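Incident log, structure service

09:12 report received: a user says their structure output differs between two submissions of the same chain.
09:20 pulled the input from the user's history:
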Amino acid sequence: MLTDADKKEITNILTLRYSPVPLSNDAKTWQDFIPKNNVTIDGASRTVHEMLSGSFAGMNKLGLTVSGGIDSSVLLHSASKSVENLVTFSVLVDGKKDPMLERMIANYETDHHDIVLDRIFKEMPRHIWLVQKPMWNMWSYYLLKYASKYCDILCTGDGGDELFGGYTFRYQQFLNGNLASPIDRVKSYLDGHGRDWVPDQKDLFGKSINFDWDSVYSLLVPYFDNPLEPLDQVFLADFNGKLLHDWHPMFQRWADAFNLKLFRPFLSKEMISFALRIPVSLKYDRNSSKGKLILRHLLASYGLQELSAQGKQGFAFDTIKLWQKEGKEIFENIMDQSEVVEAGLISMEWIDRTLGSQERQASHRYVNKLLGILALEVWHRIFITKSMSLNQTL
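09:34 re-ran on a clean worker, output below:
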């Protein structure tokens, strides 16, 4: 039986991609983000370098996820100076090797593994059973599953984007929006997360869900109703939102399931305390739209200028391609007798309208919503009606 809390969580996840309630014990206040004066990029880079170097000291064997991006490049360089047996793992997006990643790996002596994923959503029931929420962005599940065969401790770059300014495309859109009031800033913030919701969001839900945007706004207003500068408010919202309620807990549940210990150097207490107070001007350059300025500065100091000049990388899959390759077939098969439609959680009219529109199925926003509904259907069958086994494959 679904509770009101369940319905609220479903609404939040299908609108924000995560549910920010209850508030995490690791949540920060706006006071934690008050920038320090007299911080220079040289001084901040030196401090980050020393913290990272110290965190790897004394380690013998370590697994490390690498994407060819700025975060993992910094971590790989730091780890290579201390860790004798370094095993690196990368997920090949669309089965293609990234030239930048290959050049980066060639600079270091690691036991490197490329992980090729065939069907992303095949083990969605087990993934959802592990995370206990209807979350569909599950590709890193396979990375941790594979890595657990070769290492006991896995280092990830979690927190690099939130602490050092990695979401540049969102910052730019936010700063170009209406920032006059807290509610205006919330709306501008959500505009930068447009792939997490759709223009007809209210029509997506069935009769059992009373959706209204004001309830969503109220979850985010506290992050934008304080004396911080607008972009500092974005960093506060990103830290307390997606980081603490999406990637962080999901990775931890996967790691626990595969008997892996996660090592997250960017999320040490010391690093968080220091990074939160770094002025935004040392994280994001509005003129060039470049972020992670301190980490770029570090890479340049390591002699890795080519890596420092690149844009954002990561294990990001094109959801439209995934939908066409496997998602649509799985969705149509499993939603033929949908429990979430029958329960009044999701509107069949909205589904039919979306499946009947080529324009919508060529939109990341709508495809992401369809995948979110698929995850909700699997979650409902596993936890509510218990009509699906976690061992079932899609």
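09:41 both user submissions now match this output. Likely a transient worker issue. Closing.
09:42 reviewer note: The chain has two domains: 4-28+198-240+318-384, 38-165+244-308. The longest helix spans residues 230-257.
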